[in-house]
Design goal:
With about 170 residues, this protein is mainly alpha-helical. The protein contains five helices and no strands. Helix 1 crosses helix 4.
Length: about 170
C-alpha cells in the first residue's frame, strides 16, 4: 500500500428495513390493556349505579335483580350505549397513554397495539359470554372502530409528555 493514499473510510452497514413490530415491548402493552380493562369495568359500573340505579349501593351491597334490570335498561337506551362507548374509548386512550409512557419509545405504536389488544380481548369476552347480543350492531361497530385510534391517541399524548410538542412551526405556516 502506498503511503501517499488517504486512508479509506469504513463502509457503512447496509440499511435494514424496519418492521412494524421493531422496538415493540410487550410488558407496556400488557400493562396498558390491564389499565384499560379495569378502568372500563370500574367506570361502567359506576355509571350504571349512579345513573340507572339512582344512588349508591346500600349496606348489603347491590341486589342482583336490580343490577340486571339497570344493565338491561342501560343497554336499551341510546344514551347508555353512547356513554359506554365514550367510557371505553377514554379508558383505551388511558391504557395507550400508560403503555406509551412505560415503553419510552414508539409511544404511539404501543398505544395503538393496546387498542388492538383490547379490541381482541373484548371480542373474546363477548364470544365467551355467549347468549343473545342485545347491543345494536351499529354501536358495536362504532366501539370496535374507535379502539385502535383511541389507543394510538393515548400513546401520542404520552409521546408529547416525554418529548414535547415537536419542533416549532416556521413563520408563515399555519
Amino acid at each position: 500500500m502506498a503511503r501517499d493514499q488517504p486512508p479509506r473510510e469504513p463502509i457503512p452497514p447496509p440499511l435494514q428495513p424496519r418492521g412494524f413490530f421493531t422496538g415493540v415491548k410487550i410488558r407496556p402493552i400488557i400493562a396498558g390493556v390491564v389499565v384499560d380493562y379495569i378502568a372500563t369495568s370500574v367506570l361502567v359500573m359506576a355509571y350504571l349505579i349512579f345513573y340507572y340505579m339512582k344512588g349508591a349501593p346500600e349496606d348489603g351491597g347491590l341486589p342482583e335483580e336490580a343490577l340486571e334490570k339497570a344493565f338491561k335498561e342501560m343497554l336499551s337506551s341510546p344514551e347508555g350505549l353512547l356513554a359506554i362507548i365514550a367510557i371505553g374509548t377514554f379508558c383505551t386512550a388511558l391504557g395507550g397513554y400508560v403503555a406509551g409512557r412505560l415503553a419510552g419509545a414508539e409511544e404511539t405504536k404501543h398505544g395503538a397495539l393496546v387498542g388492538a389488544a383490547s379490541l381482541i380481548l373484548g371480542a373474546l369476552q363477548a364470544a365467551m359470554i355467549g347468549g343473545e347480543n342485545t347491543i345494536p350492531q351499529g354501536y358495536e361497530l362504532l366501539g370496535y372502530a374507535l379502539a385502535i385510534p383511541a389507543g394510538a391517541l393515548g400513546g401520542y399524548f404520552a409521546q408529547r409528555d416525554t418529548r414535547g410538542p415537536g419542533p416549532p412551526l416556521r413563520e408563515g405556516n399555519p
